[in-house]
Write a structure and sequence with these properties.
The protein is an alpha/beta fold. It contains eleven helices and eight strands.
Length: about 250
């Protein structure tokens, strides 16, 4: 049986617009304006990571963007009581539970869903009652996928950092690993997303994996936007993931 091919969606992560603003603790550039511009350019969703240390996105960003945009807001967050409370109050369309370490520059790997499966299972009804779709940011690992399913997650987002940083044959091997994981997750009824370290070159191979529905990409889009403007950077990436730019 042929694999079902899902329409590809692009979630634009705007954390690094906030990183630039927080360098001066001012109000420029406007993170909400970035969200609206990305939406206008074709983003299917906006992703923000409200970290416990508030190094970039702030609580007021969450509230402002939630009110302003019309596409789904995906809130990346640690699985801790403070952030669970915040999510249940803000009611974004989606949350993605991620591991978080204070000294890391960026998220370094997937959540260990196996280790906290029972805690995740207890939290899921609260998110469901609030109408929030829950994704787990995990490595493309069989055991982690089964734990995500058992915990009651709606989706998984595969950490693609290892793939993004690999080269040649090693990268092809990682691409195959992600493809197999995507096939398994989809067969279990989970939505399949992917993100981390993806850019305008390495996205091309992953965009051909039929089961992946959404790519969440931030750093490379914001980096390109420095030279092209945000709208052009978003449109360029959207063309690549939908196959119109390859």
């Amino acid at each position: 049986m042929a694999a079902r091919i899902f329409p590809k969606k692009l979630g634009v992560n705007i954390d690094h617009v906030a990183t630039l603003r927080q360098a001066r603790r001012g109000c420029e550039p406007s993170v909400c304006r970035a969200a609206l511009e990305a939406e206008s350019a074709g983003a299917d969703g906006i992703t923000i990571h409200l970290r416990e240390d508030r190094r970039h996105i702030q609580d007021f960003d969450l509230k402002e963007i939630r009110r302003a945009i019309h596409v789904p807001l995906n809130l990346e967050m640690a699985f801790v009581p403070e952030m669970i409370e915040t999510a249940l109050a803000a009611k974004p369309g989606k949350i993605c539970l991620v591991p978080e370490r204070r000294r890391e520059l960026t998220t370094e790997g997937g959540l260990d869903a196996r280790a906290i499966e029972q805690k995740l299972k207890k939290a899921m009804p609260s998110f469901r009652r609030a109408g929030i779709e829950v994704s787990l940011f995990i490595d493309p690992d069989t055991a982690q996928i089964h734990s995500a399913k058992c915990a009651g997650a709606d989706a998984v987002e595969f950490h693609t950092g290892t793939y993004a940083h690999a080269r040649g044959g090693a990268q092809r091997k990682q691409r195959l690993r992600i493809a197999r994981a995507a096939q398994l997750a989809a067969s279990l009824g989970l939505k399949v997303n992917a993100g981390h370290g993806l850019d305008y070159e390495n996205i091309k191979a992953l965009a051909r994996i039929p089961q992946i529905e959404e790519f969440n990409i931030g750093h490379s889009i914001v980096s390109r936007a420095v030279f092209t403007g945000l709208a052009r950077a978003v449109r360029d990436m959207k063309r690549l993931i939908t196959g119109r730019g390859r």
